[in-house]
Request: fold
Amino acid sequence: MDQLDFLTAIVQEPETKYIAKVLHDKYKQFHADGNYGVAMTETMFGRKIQEIDGVTRQKTNHGSVYHMNKEAMKNHLEVLSLDMRKITSADSQKRKEIEERKRKHNLETEEEQRKAKRLQDDEEDRQRKIIEEQEEKCRKVMVEYAHGDNLTRLTIEPSLHRMLESRYPDENKRSEFIKSLAAAVAKPSMEYAGVYVLKLGGLPHMYYVGCSKTVLARIEQHRRGAGAACTAGATSIEVLPLLTEGNEADLDGWERAETLTLMYTFGIDKVRGWH
Reply:
């Protein structure tokens, strides 16, 4: 490219004969002024310039001399310039195609990232709605039972409600039982006999199974630290749903079945209960 530009400039000059060394020096100066990079040696320059139509080399006693037919050179240089423009145009088109592929790839990647983010957001929204629906269900249950039939207000914790759901799967029976609790606040008759499961915080054994003829009062004893030795020192106590069904007439057998089921589920070391 540098030689083509140089010869195009030479064609504009009136001279038609150049001493080889002088012409090469002019080329080097042109090359340096144009910041083309590494210049060709005099030998390489001589080989390349003789490939141009209209340039002939003559050896004399004073060195080589180049004779130039400027018209022939001009025609040849125009053809070379046209070919160079075609190559440059093809390279430019190729670069555009590569850049377009990169752009499309980046767009596809960004779209995939947006889809993944939307899926993540949708899943988070779904989980949040599930939690909100569960909490709302517990709140609605407590409000309904607190005000239904003008009964005395009874606050029922969600964990206690889950235990009652396990004990009374039928909604009507559970409703009647909770209403009876509300009607009998502060009365011993509000209690019931059965088995219960507690999840203990801050202790090596995480689960405790017990049975009592007064389940609610017994659970409160555990909360105050006045229950079983296994529950003393717990930093938190949560009532869990039962995994088994049993008969109030056989609380011992029911407690045994619930304890073994929890041991199978969570491991022997994690469960305390029965005898």
Summary: The two ends are 98 Å apart (CA to CA). Residues 2-68 form a domain with the Arc Repressor Mutant, subunit A fold (CATH 1.10.10). The first helix runs from residue 2 to 11.
